[in-house]
Design goal:
This protein is α+β, with helices and mostly antiparallel strands. The chain has helices at residues 42-64, 104-118, 120-127, and strands at residues 4-10, 14-19, 24-27, 68-80, 89-101, 131-140. Helix 1 packs across helix 2. The longest helix is centred in the middle third of the chain and has 23 residues, at 42-64. It starts with a strand and ends with a strand.
């Protein structure tokens, strides 16, 4: 069982969550609700978790395919439900950008497998009703 310890450390809404290995993140609410800009908002952390989960999948798959990845990034945008509480993620858009000596078809397959099969955070969001769209840009390494 995973254990997370959460404690208030900054103002009314600034919290630090720490796992059993000592890794931590800081959370806060938005300034309109009394936050102080101390950390990410919890629902933003969900999108960050989606990116981290999917990135691990994609890199792992590409390594098994012997692809040479020089750089990797994901831009994630999300829209939440309007005028409801709780307001869940309704739509999520992900843009993977990979560079290196990479076969674009293999990269596309890796992204697809992550989002549609392996990423637990993506599946959690889908089960909560979110749609997840993604696209890929591969920047090829220049041959010398």
């Amino acid at each position: 069982m995973v254990t997370i310890q959460l404690e208030r450390v900054n103002g009314d809404y600034g919290f630090r969550a720490t796992d059993e290995n000592g890794h931590s993140i800081q959370t806060d609410t938005n300034p309109e609700s009394g936050g102080l800009g101390f950390g990410v908002r919890p629902m933003q952390a969900v999108l960050m978790a989606l990116g981290g989960c999917s990135a691990i999948d994609v890199v792992s798959i590409l390594k098994k395919q012997r692809q040479n990845l020089d750089a990797f990034s994901i831009t994630i945008k999300g829209e939440r439900e309007k005028d409801v509480v709780p307001a869940l993620w309704k739509t999520v858009e992900m843009h993977f950008t990979l560079s290196g000596d990479i076969d674009e078809d293999k990269a596309r397959k890796a992204c697809s497998l992550s989002i549609e099969k392996y990423c637990s955070v993506a599946e959690t969001l889908r089960r909560a009703g979110a749609s997840i769209e993604w696209k890929l840009t591969v920047v090829s390494r220049q041959k010398a």
